[in-house]
Specification:
Number of strands: 0
Strand content: under 5%
Structural class: mainly alpha
Number of helices: 4
CATH architecture: Orthogonal Bundle
CATH topology: Helix Hairpins
CATH superfamily: S15/NS1, RNA-binding
Helix content: over 70%
Order of helices and strands: HHHH
CATH class: Mainly Alpha
Amino acid sequence: MSITKARKQELITEFKTTDVDNGGSTASQVAILTERIRNLTEHMKQNRKDKHSRRGLLLMVNRRKKLLAYIKKNSLHEYEDLIKKLGLRK
């Protein structure tokens, strides 16, 4: 369900905004949350009655939604690039 340290580091290096970014930038956080959401969605397809994981999934989706709204408010161009890279909002 969770992602490995290596995969998390790959996402951070791909989506970092500055050279000293260690995963704290908003784009990196959104990328990591998206990966975790995709993994948990697969888990939920197999375990429909897992209410605790469902709650965690909803919390992650809401956190990602807030972060994306923040990016959109500050930089529309960066928001559009991030959405395109992650394959969100078809």
